[in-house]
Structures are given as C-alpha cells and as structure tokens.
Design brief:
The protein has helices at 2-46, 62-71. It is an all-alpha fold and 72 residues long.
Length: 72
Amino acid sequence: MDQKDSFARATARTAHHAVAELGKDMASLWTRLGVIELKTEGIVRLGRCALCGEPCKARYCSQHVGLVEGNE
C-alpha cells in the first residue's frame, strides 16, 4: 500500500510541475503575441482604401473592389 501512495505522490508532483511550466510557457506566449500585435498594428494602418480611406490590406476595401473591377 505504501508503494502505491509513493507512486501517486510522485505522479502528482510531476503533474504539478508540468502544469506550472505550461503556465509559464503560456504567459510567455501571450506576451509575445501582444508584442506582435503591437508591431503589426502600424502595418495594418498603412493600408487604406483609395476611395473611402478604410483600413485594408489592398488598394481598395472589400466593398469597393467589385466597383473598381466592374469599371475595368
């Protein structure tokens, strides 16, 4: 019986340490994602629709792409 208790305690200790390490890794990941969002926020602001000025990644926003393509 004592051997089973020892094994259970060792397993619980290992699991506890693994969860603590995972928590640290997740905190680091969220910090890195926040940094990436801050750095890419300026890039997104650079792209604006040539017709309405809304932020977009192309020359025209999704509403004006069809309008411009229809004229060409």
